[in-house]
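Researcher: Sequence recovery benchmark, item below. Answer with residues only.
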C-alpha cells in the first residue's frame, strides 16, 4: 500500500530536516553538497505536495450526504435525472452550473454532489 499525501509531505519534510541538520552539524559548507541539494529538493517536493493537496481539496466533488454548502450561491452540481419514469431504475447523471438556493431537490432530479466554482481567470500582470 502506498503513502497518503499527508504521509508523503511528512516524509519529504523529515528528509529535508535530516539533511539540513547534517549540513549544520558537520560543516556549513556542506549546504552546497549532495546533502544540501537533497534537503533543498525535499523542501521543494513538500511544498509541491502541499499545493497538490490544496488543489485536490478545492476541486473535490462533495456528496450532499456528506455536507451542504453553508450558504446559497453559484456551484457546480451533479444532478441525477430519472429519465424513464418513477417505475424504472434507469438514471442519468449530468454536471451543471447552477445557483443553489434553499431548494435542493426538484421534481425529477436530485442534486447528489456539488463543488465551489473555480476562481475566475485573471491575466497575469507584467511587472
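Model:
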Amino acid at each position: 500500500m502506498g503513502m497518503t499525501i499527508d504521509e508523503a509531505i511528512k516524509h519529504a519534510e523529515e528528509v529535508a530536516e535530516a539533511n539540513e541538520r547534517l549540513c549544520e552539524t558537520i560543516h556549513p559548507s556542506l549546504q552546497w553538497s549532495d546533502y544540501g541539494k537533497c534537503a533543498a529538493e525535499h523542501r521543494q517536493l513538500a511544498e509541491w505536495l502541499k499545493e497538490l493537496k490544496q488543489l485536490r481539496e478545492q476541486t473535490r466533488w462533495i456528496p450532499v450526504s456528506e455536507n451542504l454548502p453553508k450558504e446559497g450561491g453559484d456551484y457546480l452540481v451533479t444532478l441525477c435525472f430519472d429519465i424513464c419514469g418513477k417505475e424504472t431504475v434507469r438514471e442519468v447523471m449530468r454536471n451543471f452550473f447552477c445557483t443553489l438556493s434553499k431548494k435542493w431537490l426538484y421534481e425529477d432530479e436530485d442534486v447528489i454532489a456539488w463543488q465551489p466554482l473555480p476562481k475566475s481567470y485573471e491575466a497575469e500582470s507584467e511587472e
